[in-house]
Structures are given as C-alpha cells and as structure tokens.
Amino acid sequence: MNQYPYPIKRIGIIGGGQLAQMSAQAAKTMGFYVTILDPTIKCSASNIADAQIIGSLYDPEKLRALASVSDVLTYDIEHIDITTLTELSNEGYAIYPSPKVLAIIQDKLKQKQLFKQNNIPTAKFKAVNKLTSKHLVELPIVQKARMGGYDGKGVVVLKDNISNALQTPSIIEELVDFAKELAIIVARSITGETVCYPVVEMVFDAKTNICDIVAAPAKIIPAVEQQARQIALQAIEAIDGVGVFGVEMFLTHDGQVLINEIAPRPHNSGHYTIEACVTSQFEQLIRIISGLPLGSTDLLRPAVMLNLLGEAGYSGQPIIIGLDETLAIPSLALHWYDKEITRPSRKMGHITVLDESLDKALTKIDQAKNILKIQGKETI
Fold first, then answer.
1. If both were cysteines, with which of 162, 246, 343, 373 could 321 make a disulfide (CB 3.0 to 4.6 Å apart)?
2. Assigned domain for 184 exists
3. How does pLDDT run across 331-367, given as a tens digit for each residue?
4. What is the tens place of the pLDDT at every residue in 107-126?
5. What's the CA gap between 359 and 365, in Å, rounded?
6. Distances (CA, A) of 216 to 197, 202, 367
7. How far apart are CA 247 and CA 160, in angstroms?
C-alpha cells in the first residue's frame, strides 16, 4: 500500500484567477499545499492558496521561484511564458499539461493544423497575416487571432465587410451554420488513461461572445454524444495531453460534430461538475497532476450553470443585486470569484442549479438571471 507524507504534494499554480481559486479549493480539501503566482496581490485564489508569489506570468525569475517550492506545476491560463516552462521541463520539473502541449494550444493555427493532420473534423481554415480586399469574396468568415485570444477577445465575425478585421496574424474560418455549440471536459492521466464528462450545450451571449449558460447534459441523440466523445478523445490523444481539457465543438444541422478549439485547463463549460458530478473537473486536475487515480465523472443530476458577468455601464467595487432572492431558489449554488473590481462583461462568479430534469433547472436559471445583477459603485 502506498504511503504519502503530508502535504501529499506541493502544487504550484501559474495564475491566480477563478480557475486557480477553484483548483486550490479542491486541492486544499484533499490536503495539498498550494502556491500561486499572480501579479495581483488580492487575486481570486489569494485567500485560498497557502502562499503567493507576486509577479508576472512571463517573469522567468518568478516562474523559477514557483517551481523551486513546488513538486508539480500547472496553470489556469494559457497565455504564459512558454520558453521558461520548456527550460524547467527539460531540467526535470513536472509541468502538466506539458509546455509542448501548451505550445500547440497557444497558437490557434497550430491547433487547427494538428486537427487536420489527425483527420479530426473541423471548419475549413487558412492562415492570414492581414485581411485585404481580396478576402471579401470569402465572406462571411470568422477571424481569430493566432495568439492571445480569450473570453471572446481576438475573435470577430465578418459578414459584409472587413472594416472590423483584426490587424494581427490570424486564421480565417468558414462561418459554420451550427445547430448547437457543444463542449466536453476530457481528463487524461500521466499513464494515458482517459475519462470524459457528459457532453454539454453552451449558449453564448451574442453581444460579448462570452459563454452565458451551460446545460448538462446536452439535449442530443446518443449517436451525436458518441461522436463528440470520440472526437474529443482523439484530439487530446493527438496532442498527448496530460491534465484536464475543455474541448469546444459545433453540432451542424445535419448532425455532424466539428471541433472548434481546446483549452488546456479546467474550462467554463465544466464548472457545473462541482455540484453535479461525483468528481469535479478541479479535483480531477489535482488527482492527475499528483499521480492519483482518476475519479468518477458520473452525473448525479441534470444541471445548468449561469456565468455572472459585470453589468454594462458599471465598474469599481462590485455590488450584488438580488442575492437574497436568488439564494432562495431551491438547489442553487453560488460561486463568487472574489474580484475587487467589476467592469462590463467581466466574469465575477457563477451559479449552478440542479434538478430532476434539465428543463426544470433551466427554468430556475432563467428566474435567477432576471434577478441577480452585478453592478459597481461607479457608472461609466
């Protein structure tokens, strides 16, 4: 029988946002020591972690300082210093997902090329340095910055003209006429074992292009669910990923599943797993990076998650409107990200509702959405 000293592992998380916060919460429940690296003194994870190193996610000295006090490193955002992480990996430090995986996922062109090379169905694409009038004949298209896109940033839909085109190296894709946007969380261990969470449906806010609602399980037929699982597993195995990955997909009107992109970390589409699954995506990540067995991904009850975004027209210290009425809704859980400043469309928290049926959970989420608002002390 294996024996583990306390703490079982010293975990270092690069980034201190809400994903680090929820990962640290899972780690602390299991008895791990957690150190985070983040430039903000009071970030979301700062009150949960045992220690924090203040510094940039691109600072080689700070990254090495984190590695020196950690048995294993992971990250809550992909926009970090890959050069230093590669050096650390070559020196024998454990980093999951690996810098090689991160190098592929950081660059949307490399992601798409990997899908194509491995015959993973995806929208047609090509690389461009700058859009010009010659691309007008290809409209409508989706343009995505190769590097740095996040939460709707670095993505534009161009239907009639290119006046709003990104002025950066990018890829352009055909505009998929999809019936649903799907996602699935895939977990893959150091030894190559894999588990999948339920396929979910994501509903995006048309104005911000940020995920608004996640419904689990997605209302799809078994054949589509199987297709989505196979594609997601194929993609994660193709990159030889170790960790927890969010795989976003399109379901076309004729029943085909196309992969959109991969996130190399716990994902917004998997927040519902905290209440709704035997093992949350965050606990799963901690299990994987510390070499423990994978946990069960069974769905306990249908669930719907709603992102809580900062209201338009407000900034500054957040003010929660309608909290009492919202928490009175049965089987509703609130997750607050402890951010000191709100601004329009900033993710401030989320709520999850469980019920005996997905439709009932959706009704409760709609009720909460009409009540709960995140405003700020300053109007803009």
1. 373
2. yes
3. 999 999 999 999 999 999 999 999 999 999 999 999 9
4. 999 999 999 999 999 999 99
5. 10
6. 10, 9, 18
7. 30
DSSP letter, residue 197: P
User: Would you say 184 and 125 are in contact if contact means Cβ atoms under 8 Å apart?
Assistant: no
Where do we find the tokens 């946007």? Answer: 181
CA 144/CA 122 separation, integer angstroms: 14
Same domain, 150 and 232: no
Query: What CATH number is associated with residue 151?
Result: 3.30.1490.20
Same domain? For 257 and 364 the reply is yes
- Alpha helices, H only, 290-332: 323-327
Question: How many distinct structural domains can be found in the chain?
Answer: 3
Q: Of 42, 40, 41, 86, which Cα lies nearest the Cα of 60?
A: 86
End position of a domain, from candidates 134, 153, 174: 174
Report which DSSP code applies to 78.
S
Q: 311 is written with which tokens?
A: 């209201």
- Residue 335 has φ and ψ, to the nearest 5°, of -120, 120
State the alpha helices, DSSP H only, in 220-309.
222-238, 273-276, 281-289
Write the CATH number for 65: 3.40.50.20
- What is the residue range of 47's domain? 10-95
For the whole model, what pTM was predicted? 0.95
Same domain, residue pair 150 and 183: no
Type of residue found at 219: K
Question: Are 80 and 141 members of one domain?
Answer: no
DSSP letter string, 12-39: EEE--SHHHHHHHHHHHHTT-EEEEEES
Q: What is the mean pLDDT of the chain?
A: 95
Give the list of residues 6+ apart from residue 312 with CB closer than 8 angstroms, or none. Answer: 344, 345
> Are 85 and 129 members of one domain?
no
Query: Rounded to an integer, what distance in angstroms lies between the CA atom of residue 78 and that of residue 150?
Result: 9
174, 208, 234 - which closes a domain: 174
Same domain, 74 and 148: no
Q: Residues 143-192: pLDDT tens digits?
A: 999 998 777 778 989 888 888 888 889 999 999 999 999 999 999 999 99
Examine the domain organization and report whether 150 and 169 are in the same domain. Answer: yes
Task: Pull the structure tokens for residue 359.
Answer: 């439709």
Q: Which residues pair with 153 in a beta bridge?
A: 150
